[in-house]
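Q: What residues go here?
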């Protein structure tokens, strides 16, 4: 599945997650990169994948083909150095 997923938790009540999710969304849209939201609070399969593969990283995260690509820190850095398309594939 080549779809790019934005894993987040909109029901977590954490303003950090909401702010970071919004920032990632803005960056992806500005770069015309299509993505699909996945709310780990309501999607058990996504929640299990996140718990297995996140390696201590916090939501929101970009996931593609079952692999965690990065979170807000990586995405902002890739965007700043124009490496977004290269790192997302």
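A:
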């Amino acid at each position: 599945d080549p779809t790019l997923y934005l894993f987040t938790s909109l029901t977590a009540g954490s303003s950090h997650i909401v702010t970071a999710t919004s920032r990632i969304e803005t960056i992806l849209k500005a770069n015309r990169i299509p993505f699909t939201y996945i709310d780990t609070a309501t999607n058990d399969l996504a929640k299990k994948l996140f718990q297995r593969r996140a390696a201590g990283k916090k939501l929101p995260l970009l996931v593609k083909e079952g692999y965690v690509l990065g979170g807000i820190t990586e995405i902002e850095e890739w965007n700043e150095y124009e490496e977004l398309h290269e790192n997302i594939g």
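A: Context that may help when evaluating the design: The mean pLDDT is 94. The chain has one domain: 4-88.
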